Backbone:
């Protein structure tokens, strides 16, 4: 399942919700500027809530993986209806979702922490 592209999203328990004050956000939350963050809210096949903010998409994912900039809908679909799901062997709270036949390569991997 190799690919040069990968997307990363945050689990719902992290500070991706626009209604949370900045002081309640973990220091590692990328892209938080104190402004409103529009967020895509979805559920994976196991019922886990996954949030993807516009800021995270733009300032982390697209910045690091420009080749998937036009595949946002496919990234969201890979989480909500993946072709393959695997736990990350190195990080307990990270899951890897994979969609087949979409994106810039044979498999579109999406990493959720």
Residues:
């Amino acid at each position: 399942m190799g690919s040069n592209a990968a997307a990363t999203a945050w689990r719902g328990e992290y500070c991706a919700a626009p209604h949370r004050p900045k002081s309640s956000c973990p220091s590692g939350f990328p892209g938080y500027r104190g402004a409103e963050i529009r967020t895509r809210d979805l559920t994976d096949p196991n019922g886990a809530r996954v949030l993807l903010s516009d800021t995270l998409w733009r300032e982390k994912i697209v910045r690091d993986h420009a080749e998937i900039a036009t595949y946002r809908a496919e990234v969201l679909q890979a989480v909500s209806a993946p072709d393959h799901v695997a736990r990350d062997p190195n990080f307990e709270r990270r899951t890897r979702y994979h969609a087949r036949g979409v994106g810039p390569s044979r498999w579109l991997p999406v990493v959720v922490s």
